[in-house]
Amino acid sequence: MAINTGNPDLDSKVGDWLNWDKNEKNIAEIEGLLKQNDTATLSKIFENRLEFGTAGLRGVMAAGPSRMNDLTVIQATQGMAKYLLECFDDVKTQGVAIGYDGRHNSCRFARLATRAFISMGIPVHLFSALVPTPYIPFSVCQLKTKAGIMITASHNPKEDNGYKVYWDNGAQLISPHDKNILKRSLDNLAPWADAWDDSVREHPLVSDPLANINQLYFDILAKECLLSELNQKTALKFTYTPVHGVGAPYVKMAFDTCKFQPYIPVQEQIEPDPEFSTVKFPNPEEGKSTLNLALATASRNNSTVILANDPDADRLACAELQPNGDWKVFSGNELGALLGWWMWSRAEQKGQNPATAAMIASTVSSKILQTMAEREGFLFEETLTGFKWMANRGLQLQKEGYQILFAFEEAIGFMCGIHVPDKDGVSAAAHLSELAVHLENKGTTLSEQLEEIYLKYGQHVTLNSYYLCYDPVTISRIFERLRNFEKEPKTYPKSLMNGKYAIKGVRDLTNGFDSRQPDGKALLPTSTSSQMITFYFENGLDATIRTSGTEPKIKYYTELRASPTQTDRQQVQATLEEMVQALVDEFLQPTLNHLTPRPE
Predict the structure, then answer these.
(1) How far apart are CA 556 and CA 225, in angstroms?
(2) Domain at 298, CATH number
């Protein structure tokens, strides 16, 4: 059909797309917009390409280069195949690993990606079943492949999908590889001759690693489970939900491996369902709104601990029944404190030298591990947000002789050890369950142990949330106001509530400024493509405001750290809540900026 939008550059992009795309539904979408003369929507769709963010490529499944679809997957993989051939002489012997979750189109995207690699003579270990995301970094490490791809959008809405890339060390892609793959993709936008042939299962370069990886993964987990006898005898009942995702069979194998009694399944959510039919958001981080069926199942079965994975099983949520009959849904920071304490206790029992042990957390996560490290003598390191940073740093520290015990981020992501250099909701479920059994044997609970941790190391009280904002101009205006607060560059707010709470330092990882450093330069890497400012207050509050790499959100992360002598947690909590409300009102100005609060 004739294309005449009045914009020759747009006409060319749309024409190329229609020439290349073979997906009838996507072709119809673009042709429909042309017939409606909807130039505004076409311009938005074709203005940018999907780029690698904090979790690879991720977006809504629809037509066009800024969305997830058959053609964007083909183009990204063609660029990746070309780049791998440049980087590795042995990629044609070692190959790549590819897995996929239960979302719409995940299996098809995986097969199309496989076709691009085998077209270049690169072998593919393509899983024959739905697998958890952590299986891909684990496979890269165990099979010594040169890269791995997981087709998943994790806990995003059902309309989304994604393309998560791991490099040859098993960790997620970081610069310059992400930029170089994008460059090669731009040089290989036209699909290769057989690009649309997704019948790849019987190809001689394609193998199924599922049975081998299952064996290797659970052999390692078996060595890490220390309480098999207690696990068999415990009176604890665990309820589990994969929230319509892939986790159920793998957590079942983890329970079998560690000798737990079978978990009680949330039947309405136990099978993969790309529609996520029982939840508004397929994200257990959202708390009771996503866990209501698990809470009902647990209550019917006299179960006191609930475990929940997100749909690709790389995150873990947990809730515990309290003596008053209420359920406590642990935050990611609280689970980080519990698992961090447990990993250190286990290592200590084995005679671990603190000087050679390390733990890691992202900059927006609780600093409870840092406080533990200062007390116990092991190394703590802070990284940018995202496991791609924590895992890559952990692998570097491992090469330097450190034992990586644990890493976490507040978004319920946990890495126990570094066999999987990424967050892993399956192994975390096993380790947290074993901790619960250990505590039950001592006559205590996860909630009570958390209190003990804070009594020993000092109260660490956190409050995190977000506002939705769909207008990039508004987002930019909010952050530019904060970094030009006195109408001059790098002049930031100095206090909250007219001086009641003084700010002693500011770090801006968008422009690389850190007032706490002698030269004014931030130690962590900076990125001008994202917004992130941290305010350090005199009274021990750290508050970070940042944009999301995958969602239209302005997020804030706050933590007030008190000394061990300040045991009144409620008072610390009250101070934090007052400060956070002031921070939102004075810095984000949600009414003035028409921000939408986080849904209840």
Answers:
(1) 36
(2) 3.40.120.10
Q: Where are the beta strands (DSSP E) in 310-378?
A: 316-321, 327-329, 357-362
Say if residue 58 is in the same domain as residue 183: yes
User: Could you give the CA distance from residue 311 to residue 156 in angstroms, rounded to a whole number?
Assistant: 9
Active site residue ranges: 154
For residue 302, the SS3 value is coil
CB burial string 28-61: b at 16+ within 10 A, e below: ebbeebbeeeeeeebeebbeebbebbbbbbbbeb
| CATH number of the domain bearing residue 558 | 3.30.310.50
The pLDDT tens digits of the residues spanning 575-600 come to 999 999 999 999 999 999 999 999 86
Domain count, the chain: 5
- Same domain membership, residue 308 and residue 340: no
What's at 310, amino acid-wise?
D
274 assigned to some structural domain: yes
Please count the helices (runs of H) and the strands (runs of E) in the chain.
19, 23
pLDDT at 1: 64
Helices (H), 227-361: 228-233, 248-257, 288-300, 332-349
Asked if the structure places residue 455 within a domain, the reply is no
CA nearest to 418, candidates 224, 231, 191: 224
Establish if 428 belongs to a structural domain: no
- Average pLDDT of every residue of the chain: 96
Question: Alpha carbon of 189 to those of 65, 74, 75, 559: distances in Å?
Answer: 10, 8, 5, 46
Segments forming the whole domain that contains residue 40: 1-47
Residue (of 199, 241, 3) closest to 112 by Cα position: 199
**Residue 13, phi then psi, degrees to nearest 5:** -65, -45
